[in-house]
Amino acid sequence: MANKYFDLIDQTFYFPQEGFDLENGYLTFNKVPLIHLIRKYGTPLKLTYLPSIGTKIKQARNLFRRAMRSQGYSGKYSYCYCTKSSHFAHVVEEALDHDVQLEISSTYDIDLIRTLHKSGKIDKKTYIVCNGFKPTSYLEGIVSLINDGFENVIAVVDNGHELDYYEEHVKVKAKIGIRVATQEEPNFEFYTSRLGLREADVIPLFNERIKDNPKLELHMLHFFVDTGIKDSLYYWGELKKAVRLYGKLKQESEQLHALNIGGGMPIRNSLGFEFDYKYMVREIVSNILEACEELEVPEPDIFTEFGKYTVGESGATIFSVLAQKQQNDSEMWYMIDNSLMTTLPDAWGIGERFILLPINKWNNDYHRVNIGGLSCDNSDYYNSEIHESQVYLPMNKPEDEELLYLGFFHTGAYQDSISGYGGIKHCLIPSPQHIIIDLDEQGNLTDRVLHPMQTSESMLNILGY
User: Fold this and answer.
1) What are the backbone angles phi and psi of residue 32, rounded to the nearest 5°?
2) Beta strands at 77-82 and 433-439: parallel, antiparallel or unpaired
3) DSSP 437
4) Which strand (E) or helix (H) includes residue 107?
5) Rounded CA gap, 374 and 163, in Å?
6) Cα dist. 96→147, 275, 414, 417, 446 in Å?
7) SS3 of 422, please?
8) Is 360 in contact with 27 (CB distance < 8 Å)?
9) Do 439 and 445 contact (CB within 8 A), yes or no?
10) pLDDT in tens, 238-278
């Protein structure tokens, strides 16, 4: 039996597969020759492959529209990009180039919306779905957009007290959404999400505060399952509850037209990832359609808020293995040139797994390893894959002149936001350089530096030295 790393991958998965292939013994990512970037820029580096973003948007939009058309669904579909998954301009602007609407969640997102409008990236007809618990500064920002003529700002009520502020300060009718709190999965620490209103409070709130109010108009019912869209009794149960609630509200409200099912469409976190997107979208549309027919109300316009799905698969983070340490008979450590905790915080904080592949040495033998980060924290490691409770990587031969390079793939969502790109990191380990990959008009790959590696001067300045 062969012991080469290539044979291990070839026997375990279908390989090559979408986004991953070998060229002259080196891994490519969406046909990007990663070894060329490593030789040009060095490591550690983060990269964003921009064309992936448009591809994901088009795929989801096509799935929903085809499912709706085939089932005679009369509502429309709107794809919202969830800005919190990555606020970077290159990401948001690439998504907007594919005609998305936007979902925001905090005060400073209002300034982001203003900036995008000023630069002509959005107009005042773009849907701006405003989620989250809202302190006064956020409420002020939402109202300022409404009063400045942004026609499709939808203030999604997380707390009934928000209505007091809108009622008092908007000059025209405010378009309101209501978020209904979902029940959490049985193994979670809480029974009910802290976000949104209890289901029992939704219709009374509408009747008492919104129904005949000259300043408020209900346009959307919003729900979101935190564990994401998946083929489980739990997910279908929560969806059906939300659709039934929509139907009851629609019987009371002429203006209500939208059901927002949130985000949570999964992305590939393993070469063995299997998810039937077509089936899931068809079933979502079918469930909504059936419930509306039962309640004899017209089908709603469907809104989704895909963030991780939009941008996750565009990202990669690449490290060099600086050294290896045999700590006991069974534990081999590969020490990399940055911190896993600070560059991939979800791997540390919630046990998230990404696609891990070496860039080179695919013809070397392989063995089981742990990957250790540069920080002095005991938790700065990565030692299991989503399909396997261990990590296998090529052996480093003493005679090899080239370092072993490791890539974590589909890291484009949340990692930079949660770690705070730039700023101060554990053990003063700098944020890696960030490279943007795109295609020019002729379809040729281009690369540019978004940010160089963080400097000691920038960190010391923040620290007040």
Assistant:
1) -85, 120
2) unpaired
3) E
4) helix 107-118
5) 49
6) 23, 26, 19, 20, 20
7) coil
8) yes
9) yes
10) 999 999 999 999 999 999 999 999 999 999 999 999 999 99
